UniProtKB/TrEMBL annotation:
Membrane-related topology note: Lipid-anchor
Family: Belongs to the NlpA lipoprotein family.
Keyword Membrane: yes
Signal peptide region: 1-20
Keyword Transcription regulation: no
Chief localisation class: membrane
Taxonomic source organism: Pseudooceanicola spongiae
Keywords: Lipoprotein, Membrane, Palmitate, Signal
CC per GO annotation: membrane
Gene3D superfamilies reported in the protein's UniProt record: Periplasmic binding protein-like II
Pfam families: Lipoprotein_9
Subcellular location(s) per record: Membrane
Protein name: MetQ/NlpA family lipoprotein
């Protein structure tokens, strides 16, 4: 009886494996990639085989999704997606929320943001939404003032008051950790900070508040929202196992949305 039960289990597992649906999910390095690897482990017994594909920047994952090279991505917040769809005409849909990764300010030259000198060099991401996010953080800290109505995507042109005369350098987000020797401060997304060995909790000299509007999302092509694998992907991401992994791995630098 034991052998028959064992054989039945093996055959059931084999059948599940044969019927498993395969998808590719695009992510950026760091927490997004690490978490999606855990999601893949949860999704496998649910009949979904996830191939995690890493991209080194913020533009290609949406292009790859539109082109059909991947079936979903998990790396961006909604303001960024909205801007991409507006600028590039992408037809994409949000199917679930994931995590918030607070943006931090880092420096090799000062230990306190209050010590930021006049005419300091400030490196920020060169994409509109994350660059705007960096400027909003500086405004929240009382360092600059942005023009009223600039919304969630201000640019350096929207700076109304800059009493310290800060000099802004707009650079590729992935390269910002490498600029720390050459600038006074760099405002860096958590995934690129952690990939460079920086701890948002221990190494940042200032960090976003946890109630920012920048919760990250799972995105698919418009029209794919109701496909069965989409629900499986979201359910696997929102599992207790993945939540526990995040809480134990990132010491508060990554916050779950569920």
């Amino acid at each position: 009886m034991l052998r028959l039960t064992t054989l039945t289990s093996v055959l059931a597992l084999a059948a599940t494996s044969l019927m498993a649906e395969e998808i590719k999910v695009g992510v950026t390095p760091g927490p997004h990639a690490q978490i999606m690897e855990e999601v893949a482990k949860v999704a496998a017994p649910m009949g979904l085989d996830i191939d995690v594909v890493e991209f080194s920047d913020y533009v290609i994952p949406n292009t790859a999704l539109v082109d059909g090279d991947i079936q979903a991505n998990s790396f961006q917040h909604e303001p960024y997606l909205d801007n991409q769809m507006k600028d590039r005409g992408f037809e994409l849909s949000v199917v679930g929320t994931t995590i918030t990764t607070p943006m931090g300010i880092y420096s090799d030259k000062i230990k306190d943001i209050a010590d930021l000198a006049d005419d300091a060099k400030v490196a920020i991401p060169n994409d509109p939404t994350n660059g705007g996010r960096a400027l909003l953080l500086l405004q929240d800290l009382g360092i600059i003032t942005l023009t009223e109505g600039s919304g969630l995507v201000p640019s350096p042109l929207d700076i109304q008051d800059n009493p310290k005369g800060l000099k802004f350098l707009e650079l590729d987000a992935a390269q910002l950790p490498r600029t720390l020797a050459d600038v006074d401060i760099a405002i860096i997304n958590t995934n690129y900070a952690t990939s460079a060995g920086l701890s948002p909790k221990d190494d940042s000299i200032a960090i976003e508040k946890p109630d920012s509007p920048y919760v990250n999302i799972i995105v698919v092509r418009k029209g794919d929202e109701d496909l069965p694998w989409v629900k499986t992907l979201v359910d696997a991401y929102h599992s207790d196992a993945v939540k526990t992994f995040i809480e134990q791995s990132y010491d508060g630098a990554v916050i779950t949305s569920w």
